[in-house]
Design a protein that fits this description.
The chain is mainly β. It has two domains: 47-285, Sandwich (Jelly Rolls); 294-415, Trefoil (Trefoil (Acidic Fibroblast Growth Factor, subunit A)), CATH 2.80.10.50. The chain is 0% helix and 37% strand. It has strands spanning 46-52, 68-69, 81-83, 90-92, 98-104, 111-112, 115-116, 119-121, 123-125, 135-142, 149-157, 168-173, 181-187, 197-202, 210-218, 221-226, 229-234, 251-259, 275-285, 294-296, 302-305, 316-319, 330-332, 335-338, 341-345, 356-359, 369-371, 377-379, 384-388, 399-402, 413-415. Strands 1, 3, 4, 5, 8, 10, 15, 16, 17, 19, 23, 24, 25 and 26 form a 14-stranded mixed beta sheet that branches. Strands 2-9-18-11-12-13-14 form a seven-stranded antiparallel beta sheet, with no helix packed on it. The protein has a four-stranded antiparallel beta sheet with strand order 27-28-29-30, with no helix packed on it. It is globular and about 70 Å long. This is 1,3-beta-glucanase. Pfam families: Glyco_hydro_16, Ricin_B_lectin. InterPro entries: Beta-glucanase-like, ConA-like_dom_sf, Glycosyl_Hydrlase_16, Ricin_B-like_lectins, Ricin_B_lectin. Keywords: Signal.
């Protein structure tokens, strides 16, 4: 007998008690006097509390210490898929991505609410493994496409009873007949299902490339972003006197690719199969309302990814602070990350003048940084400081590695 899952628009309850994983600095590496061996954490740079970069060999399963794989169908939404725990439906691709694959098949003779199942897919959750109240919740992914496809990155409350009383936050939903539109929605008592409160964002065809989908959550405030651009805010004032269930309650994460249902409709002859949702990362930080910090230095300017370009090798520079995603940095261990990639010493160089760039996170010494109590940012492998080239405060001046001198062009502060 199949296991009935909690629906996307009509949920069953889920209760979890989860520890929040706290990010911290690695310690014990000897540095110069400008960067002590155990640097004081710069608490203004958001600490990563959950992260999955989906690194690993191709065709391997997701990390079972972080994710549960749900199994079963979903009668409440009239979805057509059967969720499995097979790597043919959810696996790493060996290139730093999770690929969730919907297939037109029934290899296990699965039974769904409508009879013999026609499709398989995958749904992941962090029940019992991670939950958190407040912070920044973000994914960087490439959307599925086609009539009847329904990808989502969302959260459910761990307390408060059954759905919708426990609360639901949809960070990103897309239905295949709207390839250029996504939705962010909240559900709670008296405002659930088709009566959920939210907004749509119209942009590019989201299946054509990777995009960031972000929620900033603080008490009495939820803010949604696409590629760093805010498009919706919700507060208790939006509920017309109904109960706000998004304070002081941890939520767990879900990520899935549904096929068919009341909202998207069923696939048709033009729907590509197999159909994929490709996820580069899922990250959560502990900084509400900002989800990452600006790093300011010489002349009050910000550490900035040139052109907000996430391509490997993009220059990291100083620029007038503007609040964009290109200037929001988070800490994951000793890595400093923006736009889904890491602050990196080019070519693994350690010499004075080595330029600093954006690059895929790989754990190498070129990407290990310590923030000292003296406000230096030091590359641990090189034992050299992040430095504004030539002490030049002009917009676009490149950052480099240089021996730590204590000068103003090597001093950094976070301003969130």
């Amino acid at each position: 007998m199949s296991i009935r899952l909690s629906p996307r628009r009509n949920r069953a309850t889920a209760v979890v008690s989860a520890a929040v994983l706290l990010g911290c600095l690695l310690a014990g590496t000897a540095l110069s006097t400008q960067a002590t061996a155990a640097p004081a954490p710069d608490v203004s740079i958001a600490a990563t509390t959950f992260a999955d970069e989906f690194n690993g060999p191709a065709a391997t399963a997701v990390d079972g210490s972080k994710w549960n794989m749900e199994v079963g169908d979903n009668v409440n939404n009239h979805e057509r898929q059967y969720y499995t725990n097979r790597t043919s439906n959810a696996a790493l691709d060996g290139q730093g991505n999770l690929v969730i694959t919907a297939r037109r098949e029934n290899p296990g003779n699965y039974n769904c609410w409508y009879g013999r199942c026609e499709y398989t897919s995958a749904r992941l959750n962090t029940v019992g493994k991670f939950s958190q109240a407040y912070g920044r919740f973000e994914t960087w992914l490439k959307m599925s496409h086609g009539q009847g496809m329904w990808p989502a990155f969302w959260m459910m409350g761990t307390t408060g009873g059954t759905w919708p009383d426990n609360g639901e936050i949809d960070i990103m939903e897309n239905v295949g007949f709207e390839p250029n539109t996504l939705h962010g929605t909240i559900h709670g008592p008296g405002y659930s299902g088709a009566d959920g409160i939210g907004a749509a964002y119209n942009g590019p065809r989201f299946a054509d490339g990777f995009h960031t989908f972000t929620l900033d959550w603080s008490p009495n405030l939820l803010v949604w972003y696409v590629d760093g651009q805010e498009y919706q805010r919700r507060t208790p004032a939006d509920l017309g006197g109904r109960t706000w269930v998004f304070n002081n309650r941890p939520f767990f994460l879900l990520l899935n690719l549904a096929v068919g249902g009341y909202w998207p409709g069923d696939p048709n002859a033009g729907t590509p199969m197999p159909n994929t949702l490709v996820v580069d990362y899922v990250r959560v930080t502990d900084a509400p309302g900002g989800g990452g910090g600006q790093i300011t230095g010489l002349a009050g300017k910000c550490v900035d990814v040139a052109g907000a370009n996430s391509a490997n090798g993009t220059a990291v520079q100083i620029y007038d602070c503007n609040g964009t995603a290109a200037q929001r940095w988070t800490r994951n261990g000793n890595q400093l990350q923006a736009l889904g990639k890491c602050l990196d010493a080019a070519g693994g160089g350690t010499a004075n003048g080595t330029l600093v760039q954006l690059w895929d996170c790989n754990g190498s010494g070129a990407q290990q940084w310590a923030v000292s109590a003296a406000n230096d940012i030091v590359n641990i492998a090189a034992n050299k400081c992040l430095d504004v080239t030539g002490n030049n405060s002009a917009n676009g001046t490149r950052l480099q590695l240089w021996e730590c001198t204590g000068s103003a062009n090597q001093k950094w502060n976070a301003a969130v």
